[in-house]
Amino acid sequence: MKQEIDLSSLSAEQLQEALAKKQKAEQTKREKEEKEYIIGRDASIMNLVDKALDLELRLQAFKEECHEVLEMQEIKLTEYGKMRKNSKGGFSLTHSNGTRRVTRLRRTEPLWDERAVKATEMIKEFLHDTVKKRNIKLFEILVSFIEKNKDGDLEYSRVMNLIKHEDKYDDPRWLEGLKLIKESFNYRLKGFGYEFKVTDKDERWRNIDLSFTSI
Known about the structure:
flat; 3 domains; 55% helix; alpha+beta; four-stranded antiparallel β-sheet
């Protein structure tokens, strides 16, 4: 049983010594706990990150394998007459038993050339001179469709929304601007992605999730 100390019987020096001893013991305990925490934390981080790096390498190797296999399959499909020679590159392969499927997806991004700069200038000039005076809300909506994003690019979906209003005005600046912006548009191939599917017990297709966010 812990013996209680009568503090009133201690001198000021003894009290200070006892307090210093207690503070030192508490500090030592805190330092030990902190050290144990840091060691445990660092070990967990090393373990998880090492496994993540290993998965990254295996996924990179797997994607390269997918690319090689599907590239060869595309050649065979073209030769066999099952794919048009002008195909954009996306296609699906299904196992003969109907339970497995691999799909190659063509990844692209919208791209506008230098004509888009002149096009947006003409469209904005027309909107400021004409639409803004009549309908400020409509003006703000139409102008927002040709505002650039943080990367300094036009947004494909917004530009398409603008083009939907093409028949609303017959001003040459409006019509020529829209014509130019359509002519300046193209796609840039970023690469290929791959999807894998299996059938479930109800014979419905289920995606095989290879992303943490979708599992």
